[in-house]
Amino acid sequence: MKTKKLFTSLAAAVMLSAGLAGTGMAMGQPVHAAGTTQSSNTKTSNVSVKHRTVSAIVNSDNPKLVVVAKDQANPDQIDSNYTKGQTINVLWSTEAKQGDKTVTLYYIENRTINGKDSFVFIPSTDVTTSGNVPTESAFVEQANNDVKAIQDAYKRSLQYITVTPKSKKGAKIYYAYKKSKKSKKITFAASKKTIKYGKKYKSSMIVKNGKTRYVYIGKKRYVKQSALKIVSAKYAPLNLPDDLKNLIVEN
Questions:
Q1: Could you read off the pLDDT of 159-170 as tens digits, one per residue?
Q2: How far is CA 109 from CA 22, 103, 234, in A?
């Protein structure tokens, strides 16, 4: 395939965000693997979400790959080491003009080529896919929906977190009260008491008051969330279909 005229639509593909072009999307919250119960002394970890892929069988040995660096408009070609019958994964499809013809390309991965971060594609005619390959926009929409569904499932399954003070000085204890029996507004007042550094507390409730969040640690005591760090979290088994559970990666 000649690449000199193969540029229309590929510029849009290169604009795909770096977060989606990689292997997964980090959820950015302490969680653990789906379907397991985490005890209070287990270390927290971060969960990332893999992208959905479509398997494809290579039709011939060493097909050419189309490469587009992020800072260039015109694509290049490189040799692949794929063999006939080999199974690879593709993520999304895009179309590009080659003269009067429209060529469909499947995105495989990001790769550093000649020192440049590049998008790597394979022409659709060089593989046989196991199913429909989504367009770039449909792929992005599905990825975002997957992340949201998994995040929501973790929020629903959270049983409690274990926290400890960040500072060696400990953390100040706050008490909640109402100024009058008729008052609906809750006020948090600092006490002279503190919780000790290194001591761990379980909490199943975080209260937001204005812009401040308070973690309830029992016995009518609250501590500012900003003064605490999460040691671990315990979740009930996730209520998710298998296709979503299979996308979860614990780091």
A1: 999 999 999 999
A2: 7, 18, 35
